[in-house]
């Protein structure tokens, strides 16, 4: 079956791998969106011939307009955050794959859902910052929210047996441990940006790679799992699986456990989200068990990696606390990548903002953005 797909964040790591899957499955592309990488976006336009594109950055949108002028069959160009939301809601696509990085993806997720589009979600921040808004919208509009993160896809795949799924008792959320697994706080005092960007197993964008190094990514994924699968945080256990071969596991009431295994290749969960409920051949390589010498398991060190502890606090507080944690982290990671704060300061700032208020209660989309801004302001105020 041919599908028409809109890819938001098409020039990023997940976006380009999504286009690998689309190419392999011979799907068509309805829309593409990027923040500012116009050069790559235009190459994608030439290959996939989308009906519409969106460019968020103003200067980049101006450049795209110049390059598209006079091009035969040029796509419609939308601009800014409003253009991203408009593209997400536009009739013509069967599914919207949201691979935008950060809270910037939330409004587009909601826009797609409210327009009746199914969403393949790689933007975990949509659920972290606006979990109740997203899940309420999914129910009200009767659409599918299909996880793209490898861990949540693994859990989703393990729950396809509807009879067993009813007795789900525990989620075992696996983590690679990042580049600094086993190090003490003392050993992390002077690590550099380059050190933190050397992930042992995955090739990802800089922000998510830093999040993996701090274990913030696992904290965000824990919050996301709570919203996606309906278990309390106490029934989501983070397990370090260094080889990134077991992508997550589920435990049922009889204590039997199912796991999803595969090579560390994001095209597997991307494809499953796009082809669900079918499984078809794809571009990812096969896992060769004869070359797999060991699978190891360990405990995540929350005392050293405070981001994970902060996220557990945040989902426990509820309300906008996860949004505050995410906003503080996005700002702190930006400062770290700019060389303005040390590595360990990221966790201190995220935990500090979570501890700063109660955050409970219902909220609106405007409240989410206000909380995000306040969390970023907190970080800047606490950086010397």
What is the CATH class name of the largest domain? Mainly Alpha
Stretches where pLDDT is under 50 for at least 5 consecutive residues are none
Rounded average pLDDT = 96
Oligomer: single chain
Rg, Cα atoms, Å: 20 Å
* Percent strand: 15-25%
Shape: globular
- Can you summarize the main beta sheet? 7 strands, parallel
- As laid out across the biggest beta sheet, the strand order is 4-3-2-1-5-6-7
State the CATH architecture of the largest domain.
Orthogonal Bundle
Instruction: Please tell me the total number of domains.
Output: 2
Q: Tell me the span between the first and last alpha carbons.
A: 56 Å
Structural write-up:
Belongs to the DXR family. Residues 5-131 form the 1-deoxy-D-xylulose 5-phosphate reductoisomerase N-terminal domain. Mn(2+) binds at residues 149, 151, 221. Pathway: Isoprenoid biosynthesis; isopentenyl diphosphate biosynthesis via DXP pathway; isopentenyl diphosphate from 1-deoxy-D-xylulose 5-phosphate: step 1/6. Its cofactor is Mg(2+); Mn(2+). α6 (125-141) crosses α14 and α14 (321-337) packs antiparallel against α15. It is built from 16 helices and twelve strands. It is globular, with a radius of gyration of 20 Å. It has a seven-stranded parallel β-sheet, with helices on both faces. It is 47% helix and 15% strand. The chain is an alpha/beta fold. The mean pLDDT is 96. 48% of the residues are buried. The protein has two domains: 4-147, 3-Layer(aba) Sandwich (Rossmann fold), CATH 3.40.50.720; 153-279 and 287-381, RNA polymerase sigma factor, region 2, helix turn helix motif (Rna Polymerase Sigma Factor, Chain: A), CATH 1.10.1740. A hairpin with a 4-residue loop joins β10 and β11. The chain starts with a strand and ends with a helix.
């Amino acid at each position: 079956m041919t599908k028409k797909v809109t890819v938001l964040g098409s020039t990023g790591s997940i976006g380009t791998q999504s286009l690998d899957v689309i190419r392999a499955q011979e799907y068509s592309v309805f829309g593409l969106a990027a923040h500012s990488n116009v050069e790559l976006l235009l190459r994608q336009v030439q290959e996939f011939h989308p009906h519409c594109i969106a460019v968020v950055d103003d200067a980049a949108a101006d450049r795209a307009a110049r390059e598209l002028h006079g091009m035969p069959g040029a796509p419609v160009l939308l601009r800014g955050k409003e253009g991203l939301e408009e593209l997400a809601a536009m009739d013509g696509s069967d599914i919207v794959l949201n691979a935008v990085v950060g809270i910037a993806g939330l409004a587009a997720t909601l826009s797609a859902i409210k327009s009746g589009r199914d969403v393949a979600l790689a933007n975990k921040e949509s659920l972290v910052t606006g979990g109740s808004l997203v899940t309420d919208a999914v129910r009200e509009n009767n659409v599918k929210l299909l996880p793209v993160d490898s861990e949540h896809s693994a859990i989703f795949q393990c729950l396809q047996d509807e009879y067993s799924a009813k007795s789900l008792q525990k989620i075992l959320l696996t983590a690679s441990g990042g580049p600094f697994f086993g190090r003490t706080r003392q050993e992390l005092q002077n690590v550099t940006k380059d050190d933190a960007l050397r992930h042992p197993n995955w090739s990802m964008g800089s922000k998510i790679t830093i999040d993996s190094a701090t274990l913030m990514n696992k904290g965000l994924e824990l919050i996301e799992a709570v919203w996606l699968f309906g278990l309390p945080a106490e029934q989501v256990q983070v397990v370090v699986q260094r080889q990134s071969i077991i992508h997550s596991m589920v435990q049922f009431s009889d204590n039997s456990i199912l796991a999803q295994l595969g090579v560390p290749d994001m095209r597997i969960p991307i494809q499953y989200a796009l082809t669900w409920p079918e499984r078809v051949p794809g571009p990812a390589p096969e896992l060769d068990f004869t070359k797999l010498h060991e699978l190891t398991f360990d405990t995540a060190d929350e005392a050293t990696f405070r981001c994970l502890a902060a996220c557990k606090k945040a989902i426990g507080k509820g309300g906008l606390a996860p949004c505050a944690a995410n906003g503080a982290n996005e700002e702190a990671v930006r400062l770290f990548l700019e060389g303005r704060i040390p590595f360990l300061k990221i966790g201190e700032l995220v935990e500090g903002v979570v501890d700063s208020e109660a955050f409970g209660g219902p909220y609106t989309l405007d409240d989410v953005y206000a909380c995000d801004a306040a969390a970023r302001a907190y970080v800047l105020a606490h950086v010397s």
